[in-house]
Each structure stands twice: as structure tokens, then as C-alpha cells.
Write a structure and sequence with these properties.
By secondary structure, the chain is an all-alpha fold. Helix content is 78%, strand content 0%. The longest helix is centred in the first third of the chain and has 32 residues, at 47-78. The structure holds 4-amino-5-hydroxymethyl-2-methylpyrimidine. Pathway: Cofactor biosynthesis; thiamine diphosphate biosynthesis.
């Protein structure tokens, strides 16, 4: 039998992340095709649910920024590829715009972002983020969790902009925020970085990274449930 050359072999090899997405398909679909997302896409969304999501997501993003800062710190210490930092920094820059966007969106919907009490699912998710901020958590685990968090929003909101969707005009801006092609490319860049580090990781780190990705997907489902008032 002829030996495949290396390039051929690399091409046919399924990536670590792709393997996990196949293995945990149902959970991934649960996080990215949630009834709340379906309701945005088909136009039946309840305004009070959307407002609740907006208020709670603002609190989440406040906690997300320090998490991303620790990912940046770990990239600086643990990765020898300068593009890692460039990609993470571009993510931080877009989070800066995101705060301006949240304020604009809040006034459009008559929502106040100050004095909002975080709900349980949000507190749980923020606490999980905080656990990932520890210096004990390896860069591979943190960058892959980061990829998963961004990708759930990208995949969910891009679905609301696809042909055949019936997303109300006043919600298109929100869907664009995470569903636009540039954000999609940024998620792919994060995926390549995560994959690169996973390929080199020990079995133990890989196992813990897979567990963190599953945690992210479960917290995302709970977050959408909370927005719909189901918790
Ligand atoms: C809950 C949640 N997950 C992911 C993102 C993406 O940044 C977000 N803004 N909120």
C-alpha cells in the first residue's frame, strides 16, 4: 500500500475541535439554535425577553473583559506566536465598542443598564469565567473556552441573518453585532489558535479543555433560558 504524503495526511485529519463538535453535536446545537434565537429569527420574540437578555448580557460582558485580559496575559507568557496576541487584542478592542453599543441599544429600548441585578444563570456563568482567570488554568484551556464563548454568539446570531429569516428590523443590529462576517473570521482565527495549541497539548490538558468547552455550552443554554424567563 502506498504511503500518503504528509500534506495529504494533514488534510484528511479531523481537528480536535471538529471531533468535539461532532461528539457533542446535540449540546452545541442546543446552545446555538435555542428557542430564544428561533424566536428572534422567526420574529415572534417577546420584547421583555429581549430586554432581559440585553440587561443581563451587559453584566456578562463586564465580566468577560477581565477574562479576556487574562487570556491576553497567558498568550504573552505561553505562546511564541505573536499573532495570538494580535487576535486577542482585536477582540478586546471590539469589546470596547461593544460597551458603547450596549448603551446605545439600551436607550433605544428604554432599558437602564445601571442597577441591574444579575440573575442566577448569569452569576453562575460569571463565576465560571472567574475560575478560568486563575493563573493555574493553562492558556490552551482559556483560549479554547474563549473561542467557544464567542462562537456560540456568532453561530446563533448569524443564523438570524440567513436567507429566509424573519428577524424584525429593530433586532437586526444586535444580530449584526455578532453575526457579521468579520466576527465570523475572528472566531475562525481564534479556532486556529486554539487548535494549534490543542495539537501540542498533553492528554490531561486536552481533557480539561474539552470539559471547559462543555461547561461553556451548558452555561450558554442556561443564559438563553434565563433570557426567556425560564429560570
Ligand atoms: C452570554 C454571552 N456569551 C457570549 C457572548 C459573546 O461575547 C456574550 N456577549 N454573552
Amino acid at each position: 500500500m502506498e504511503r500518503k504524503d504528509e500534506a495529504e495526511e494533514a488534510k484528511s485529519k479531523v481537528s480536535v475541535i471538529e471531533t468535539w463538535l461532532r461528539k457533542h453535536r446535540l449540546l452545541y446545537v442546543g446552545a446555538t439554535r435555542h428557542p430564544f434565537i428561533h424566536s428572534i429569527r422567526d420574529g415572534s420574540v417577546d420584547v421583555s425577553s429581549f430586554k432581559r437578555w440585553l440587561e443581563q448580557d451587559y453584566i456578562f460582558v463586564r465580566a468577560f473583559v477581565p477574562f479576556v485580559a487574562t487570556v491576553l496575559l497567558k498568550a504573552w507568557k505561553e505562546s511564541f506566536d505573536a499573532t495570538d496576541m494580535d487576535v486577542i487584542l482585536s477582540g478586546m478592542a471590539s469589546l470596547n465598542d461593544e460597551f458603547a453599543w450596549f448603551n446605545k441599544e439600551a436607550s433605544k429600548w428604554g432599558v437602564s443598564l445601571t442597577n441591574v441585578a444579575p440573575q442566577k444563570a448569569n452569576l453562575d456563568y460569571c463565576r465560571f469565567l472567574e475560575s478560568l482567570m486563575s493563573s493555574e488554568v493553562e492558556y490552551t484551556v482559556a483560549i479554547t473556552a474563549f473561542w467557544a464563548i464567542e462562537t456560540v454568539y456568532q453561530d446563533s446570531f448569524a443564523h438570524c441573518l440567513e436567507d429566509g429569516s424573519n428577524t424584525p428590523e429593530e433586532l437586526r443590529d444586535t444580530c449584526q453585532r455578532w453575526g457579521n462576517d468579520g466576527f465570523g473570521q475572528y472566531c475562525h482565527a481564534l479556532q486556529s489558535i486554539a487548535e494549534h495549541h490543542l495539537e501540542k497539548a498533553s492528554d490531561d490538558v486536552r481533557k480539561r479543555t474539552e470539559a471547559a468547552v462543555l461547561d461553556v455550552l451548558e452555561y450558554e443554554v442556561a443564559f438563553w433560558n434565563m433570557s426567556q424567563g425560564d429560570t
